[in-house]
Amino acid sequence: xxxxxxxxxxxxxxxxxxxxxxxxxxxxxxxxxxxxxxxxxxxxxxxxxxxxxxxxxxxxxxxxxxxxxxxxxxxxxxxxxxxxxxxxxxxxxxxxxxxxxxxxxxxxxxxxxxxxxxxxxxxxxxxxxxxxxxxxxxxxxxxxxxxxxxxxxxxxxxxxxxxxxxxxxxxxxxxxxxxxxxxxxxxxxxxxxxxxxxxxxxxxxxxxxxxxxxxxxxxxxxxxxxxxxxxxxxxxxxxxxxxxxxxxxxxxxxxxxxxxxxxxxxxxxxxxxxxxxxxxxxxxxxxxxxxxxxxxx
Length: 297
Fold this sequence. Notes:
This protein has two domains: about 5-65, Molybdopterin biosynthesis moea protein, domain 2 (Alpha-Beta Complex); about 70-295, Hypothetical protein af1432 (Orthogonal Bundle), CATH 1.10.3210.10. The protein is mainly α and about 300 residues long. A two-stranded antiparallel sheet has the order 1-4. The protein is built from twelve helices and four strands. It has helices at about 40-45, 60-65, 70-90, 95-120, 135-150, 155-170, 180, 190-210, 215-220, 245-255, 270-280, 285-295; strands at about 5, 20, 30, 50-55. The radius of gyration is 19 Å and the shape is globular.
């Protein structure tokens, strides 16, 4: 079943929805294949969708039902992660312990889901709502990272650590002001410096206040390091950047570039891969780039 991505404009009215939508408890809101009317369009607009997935040919009802459980899980996982992040941010021991337990449970469920249901990575997992971008993005990065980990023959225990690390990689964005995160114009130098602090602030909070171990937090501080040493916060290069971080850096970029953001429209998968290939050995580990291209097909 092919889908296309379209901007959220009135021209989509009368076309068929290319993804099922669920609320945070897993209840179906709109089924894949439904014809979009004015009321549904207003719903998408209110929820903060800038783009939407549409079916590009006649809808097969049975084919749509086959993936309903997968769609439900991937669309409810970000709500669970949002609750976990809120608990981790509180400086309370009991809240932190609960959050760590819930995070491990979510990571285990996500890993099982990928291994038993997805089999191959979707090029676009779902369109994002601006208000929940951080949590949807983090789940997507975990999905792509697992496929890379599998190409590297990681055992399940190592894959699980990778999933947790991927889910936490952008936790530090919780400490960046919303005015900066949602800015629609180019960031000023001082604003960009504030954004860069999400790596060190997130890592410090997770280790000092939440007692996480290094492997599960390494990507939170390293996912903006570059393979050539031109990244931040420590200008690490090559294999001095942990392999989890090299995997997550690539997954993070791909999902971010193929997503709508306040300051720009999404890029196509083809454009994202062209940039990635042009920047292997610069930003990205070339081996990870090769494996990622193979997993996407």
